[in-house]
Design goal:
heterodimer, A: mainly alpha, 3-stranded antiparallel beta sheet, 8 helices, B: mainly alpha, 3-stranded parallel beta sheet, 11 helices, 7 strands, Ribosomal_uL15_bac-type (chain B), Large ribosomal subunit protein uL15m (chain B), ribosomal protein (chain B), Ribosomal_uL15 (chain B), ribonucleoprotein (chain B)
Chain lengths: 186, 294
């Protein structure tokens, strides 16, 4: 892209030398740079959404001109994407829905736990028993857990062995005959 | 053949039938997919997509979308369940039950000090350095059946585990290995073929420095006098008589410890081990000796 700009500027400069009018140089530089800008964004329009600093480009002075280079139609519309990405742009891999990990926790036996909705709201009008229940963490059901499993990658589905983790006692269900994985020792 | 019945009849029929071979088997029903889309009565009409609505239009909704409802996966407030997970080290557990089994089945030799290298060399304990696994967490499962007298070095141990080992007359140390050392320990044979000198162990990072310096957790950086004091305190807390190590004939083995910079028993950092030549090459330059000892 730099080469395009440099060749364009050089051609203008040679042209200006012939005409020998410095004023016209500045005058003519404007539409050329604008056209390059548009071409650049046309060719790499897919990269616009990826860049976090697209807003800065607009403010960055290009060839001494600070404003009005990027048309308003090219300014990116940032939508928050919370859907599952099955094939990422760079590596073609699945991606985790990050908001799931902010709200849910997976136990190693496959179930996900969550908090209650509205646990911080209008507590003044909720009786003590209800406030106690709002403080609890509860299981999601099987359908919901399967859905959440699909929304995260395999990293989150494998066991993690943190020491001093408050959820460590809940990762196994050896206490029930149906869910036991190892034979009971007598 | 007329007189045969049941199993005999079935077997005699089987003898006369041709053997199952490629020329007389067919696909499972539905295994073959036709390459063409049928028209009209040949599976055409709705093409299996149903009548009207979402199904007919085949708009497969994205996971978690509930057609305008506040979705279930966005319904609840944040909770820091996974906060800082990318920084936390993991210690895959090894229970005392398993350790006893390793010793009973001659995978581990209790007459020698047991460390991470010997546990990995049993082939029954697996850890992945790239998954931030940092060594053995000895858990108290099977604590009542543990009988071995060992000198063991693990990376993490709880109080009942320490008590169980010291009750039997053994000793336990908790020691830290940095990531380079863990890579070496993971596959020692492969490391020795590379011809790289044995690295020196780095000191623990600040988040677990306290654990490895504390005498209650039998840290490898703790003062030995404090540890012997804490052994007595723990025996009184759990109510057992502490066996005297000094009177033990294996005293030398039980009190053997690695240097905080040392990776293998009997080998020092900076040495190069050649398995092919069966030789050990030691550094001679002073600056190398200084580097590996500091």
């Amino acid at each position: 892209m730099l080469r395009i700009v440099s060749t364009a500027v050089r051609s203008i400069a040679s042209h200006a030398n012939v005409v020998n009018l410095t004023n016209s140089l500045i005058f003519k530089q404007y539409p050329v740079t604008q056209c390059i800008q548009q071409r650049f964004f046309g060719a790499f329009s897919s990269t616009i959404n990826k860049w976090g600093n697209v807003g800065n480009i607009k403010e960055k002075p290009i060839f001494g001109q600070t404003e009005g280079i990027v048309p308003l139609s090219l300014t990116p519309v940032t939508n928050s994407v919370r859907t599952v990405i099955k094939y990422s742009r760079q590596k073609g891999k699945r991606k985790t829905v990050k908001t799931v990990l902010k709200r849910f926790y997976r136990l190693n036996w496959g179930i996900w736990i969550r908090t209650y909705a509205g646990r911080h709201k209008h507590l003044w009008k909720k009786p003590e028993g209800r406030r106690y229940r709002l403080r609890q963490h509860v299981f999601c059901n099987a359908t919901q857990s399967t859905m959440l499993d699909k929304m995260v990658t395999s990293y989150w589905r494998r066991p993690h062995y943190y020491v001093d983790d408050p959820y460590n006692p809940y990762h196994k269900r050896e206490e029930f005959p149906l869910t036991r994985t190892k034979p009971k020792l007598y | 053949m007329a007189g045969k019945q049941g199993k005999d009849l079935a077997l005699s029929m089987l003898r006369t039938l041709p053997r199952v071979a490629l020329n007389n088997i067919r696909n499972n029903p539905g295994a073959n997919k036709p390459s063409k889309r049928g028209r009209g009565q040949h599976g055409g009409d709705k093409h299996g997509a149903g009548n009207k609505g979402s199904g007919q239009r085949q708009n497969f909704m994205r996971t978690g979308y509930e057609t305008g409802n506040n979705p279930f996966y966005l319904r609840f407030s944040y909770e820091p369940y996974y906060k800082g997970h990318h920084l936390r080290r993991e210690y895959p557990p090894l229970s005392l039950q398993q350790l006893q089994m390793f010793i009973d089945t001659n995978r581990l030799d209790p007459s020698k000090p047991i460390d991470l290298v010997s546990i990995v060399n049993t082939g029954l304990y697996d850890f992945k350095v790239e998954w931030k696994h940092a060594g053995v967490h000895l858990t108290d499962e099977g604590v009542d059946n543990f009988e071995a007298k060992v000198n063991i070095e693990v990376q993490w141990a709880s109080e009942p585990v320490i008590a169980a080992i010291e009750k039997n007359g053994g000793t336990i140390t908790t020691a830290y290995y940095d990531i380079h050392c863990l890579h070496v320990i993971k596959d020692v044979d492969r490391f020795f073929t590379t011809g790289v000198p044995i690295p020196r162990r780095l000191l623990p990072p600040s988040d677990c420095l306290e654990y490895y310096m504390s005498a209650e957790t039998r840290g490898y950086l703790a003062n030995p006098e404090e540890i012997s004091c804490e052994r007595l305190v723990l025996s009184q807390k759990y109510g057992y008589e502490l066996p005297k190590i000094e009177d033990n004939p294996n005293n030398e083995m039980l009190t053997q410890r690695k240097d905080p910079r040392q990776l293998f028993y009997g080998l020092e950092p900076g040495w190069v081990v050649s398995l092919k030549d069966k030789a050990i090459l030691k550094p001679k330059a002073d600056y190398l000796k200084e580097f590996y000892s500091s």
